[in-house]
Specification:
By secondary structure, the protein is mostly helical. The longest helix has 23 residues. It is globular, with a radius of gyration of 23 Å. About 0% of the residues have low confidence.
Length: about 400
């Protein structure tokens, strides 16, 4: 039973939280109610069995526990009675699964309200939508944990002080909010596709939720950028099952069983890409989707058109330069022109200090050195990557590489 509750917490707790925020009107009270609801589940489900609708049960349990807390913390007077009246659900409301499903979208739009600073929007979305801890977010963005905590607290205070409505805005306001919402949805997907920490390579609940949310936004406001993002996520997610072995080991792209890729998602992703590229202007997500499409179309790793991928990264670097884009471009250059060329680019990025604490930059450098036969330097770079990595399957992969190269060096 503990494993079942843990699985439900992992896959559904963000959805329960989003609904509790709508019902309780307060982020902190909703988080407390969420934990109370799962504690109640741990006490009663082993005795009574799992309810037919666990999400609805948890929402109701959390809301009633919140009322209990209000009773204990405040003097029972008319104002508290008003609060209670607003919190008790109508029976049909508690079972409204359509409303519960849309609460995730409401939560994202609330996190992306224009009065909240951009860096706080991202931090709060990762905290509330993805469920990352403050420390995990700080690690992902290479900033101190207290800084992230302050951003989240200030964002919640702004929402409370400005009485920002917890809702999807009307259609005239949607275009202004679209870029930020798509950015957050892609962050949710990325956290699911390549978890920043923990014991799993992927968090399929997050990737599936991000794709579902993008479809919902597309229904509200059809737009080629949404097609581009949805195409990108579907093409990447098509490889999800092949990214880890049965025993949970990370499997790199060139070692994956391509017959395990989801052909249905690839077909839909390519169709959406064609639609997104039909206009005069092409968005950044569409260019990234075009890169993912090159991998999807290659029957073997050797058939990958790395020169075309490098050209797409040139477009991204010109439109929105960033150290991450430069790093990915370096990989494409290494695969198409040679590992010495890729290594020179990565060394330049690291010397600038931009990605010094980003483990994938050191991992890429280590891989180029390994392929060039510079074993001692490759081991040193892998060890640096290992010291910065927080995801256990990636850490195990890096340990294996170090072990293989150490054995090879000793055999020379």
């Amino acid at each position: 039973m503990d494993r079942v509750i843990e699985d439900i917490y992992r896959s559904q707790s963000r959805r329960v939280l989003a609904t509790l925020i709508r019902l309780l009107g307060d982020f902190d009270r909703a988080e407390e109610a969420l934990h109370d609801a799962f504690a109640e589940a741990a006490r009663t489900w082993p005795r009574d069995g799992i309810p037919g609708n666990p999400v609805s049960w948890l929402v109701s349990a959390g809301r009633f526990r919140a009322i209990d807390h209000i009773r204990r913390r405040a003097r029972f007077d008319a104002s508290v009675q008003d609060i209670e009246d607003s919190l008790y659900p109508a029976p049909e409301e508690a079972d409204d699964m359509d409303a519960i499903a849309d609460d995730m979208l409401r939560l994202i739009f609330t996190c992306c309200h224009p009065i909240i600073p951009a860096e706080a929007q991202v931090a709060m979305a990762l905290r509330e939508v993805c469920g990352l801890t403050t420390e995990e977010i700080a690690h992902a963005f290479l900033v101190p944990a207290p800084t992230v905590a302050q951003r989240i607290v200030r964002a919640k205070n702004r929402i409370r002080a400005a009485e920002i409505p917890y809702e999807v805005p009307e259609k005239p306001e949607l275009p202004e909010r679209l870029d930020r919402v798509l950015h957050v949805i892609y962050l949710v997907f990325n956290e699911g596709y390549s978890a920043s920490s923990g014991s799993a390579v992927v968090r399929s609940g997050l990737t599936g939720e991000a794709i579902r949310l993008a479809r919902l936004v597309g229904e509200l406001l059809p737009h080629r950028d949404i097609d581009g993002l949805l195409s990108l996520m579907l093409l990447q997610d098509s490889r999800r099952l092949a990214r880890s072995s049965d025993d949970g080991r990370l499997v790199l792209l060139d070692e994956q069983d391509r017959s395990a890729w989801d052909r249905g998602k690839i077909v839909e992703g390519l169709q959406l890409l064609q639609s997104a590229m039909a206009g005069e202007e092409v968005g950044l997500y569409t260019v990234q989707a075009a890169i993912a499409a090159e991998h999807s179309k290659a029957a073997t790793p050797e058939a990958t058109n790395w020169r075309q991928i490098a050209r797409y990264y040139d477009l991204l670097a010109a439109a929105q330069p960033s150290p991450i884009v430069a790093l990915n471009r370096a990989v494409a250059i290494a695969m198409s022109e040679g590992f010495e060329q890729g290594l020179a680019i990565v060394d330049g990025i690291l010397q600038s200090g931009d990605l010094e604490r980003y483990h994938l930059a050191h991992s890429a450098r280590a891989d180029f050195l390994r392929r060039l036969g510079r074993i001692a330097e490759a081991i040193e770079a892998y060890e640096r990557a290992l010291s910065l990595c927080q995801q256990e399957p990636e850490r195990n992969f890096l340990r294996r590489r170090i072990s293989e190269l150490t054995a090879a060096a000793e055999g020379q």
